[in-house]
Amino acid sequence: MHGSLRTFCKLAIGTSALLLAACASTRMDAQWSNPAYQGKVARGGSVLVACEAQDLTLQRICEDQLAAALAARGAKPTLNSQLAPATTPSAGNDPYVAAAKRVGARAIARMTLGATVPVAVDSGPRIGIGIGGGSWGGGGSSVGGGVGVGFPIGGSRVTQAFGAETALIDPSSGATMWSGRASSSTSQDVSGQITELAQVTADALVGAGML
Questions:
Q1: pLDDT surpassing 50 at residue 47
Q2: DSSP 8-state assignment for residue 104
């Protein structure tokens, strides 16, 4: 292999490895804490857990997993989806704030899920068809070459990544105590991705002194 081509291949392989490593795990991308709430924690207190997602199934998985992650770290979660709707909603009030006040929650943990555009990836082996070269002509002329055609067996699988924007809210004032953004790896396991997002978010809340 030519020296410059060999160098290029090594750089390409190294870059690909770094990109794969960067996308291989769920992580917190950014977080913010309200200085006014330093030392005011939700640990041991009731927390209203609410999730917003593109469909009901993702919403319920999100609430279950976030509630489990918070409970494992000392909070007492109440799922918003399990509460009966208010009989007399107050105009202009955040519905989560109103629900939290009804159940006496010390904080609201609201997670909003978003998904990237799905990506189709080939699954299974591929079939290849090759046509080799030959020679002809009285003058000994020859033509060499080949044509290859490949296609996958069994179709494609669809994978996507998720992002989660989470806010910890003070029900008494509606103020945001903490907010953070997390992203998952690309996978077909949606439940697993949401579980990992809930876990890294709860860990970040612990690190920020909120739990």
A1: yes
A2: T
Please, what is the average pLDDT of the chain?
78
Of 201, 173, 196, 191, give the one whose Cα is nearest residue 109: 201
- At residue 62, does pLDDT exceed 50? yes
**Cα(first)–Cα(last) distance of the chain, in Å?**
57
Helices and strands (H and E) in the chain: how many: 4, 12
CB 183 within 8 A of CB 31: no
Locate the domains of the chain by residue range: 26-118+158-207
Q: What is the pLDDT of residue 44?
A: 87
Q: Write out the two tokens for 130.
A: 């090759």
- C-alpha 44/C-alpha 62 separation (Å) is 21
The CATH number, out of the four listed (3.30.420, 2.60.40, 3.40.50, 3.30.300), of the domain defined by the range 26-118+158-207: 3.40.50
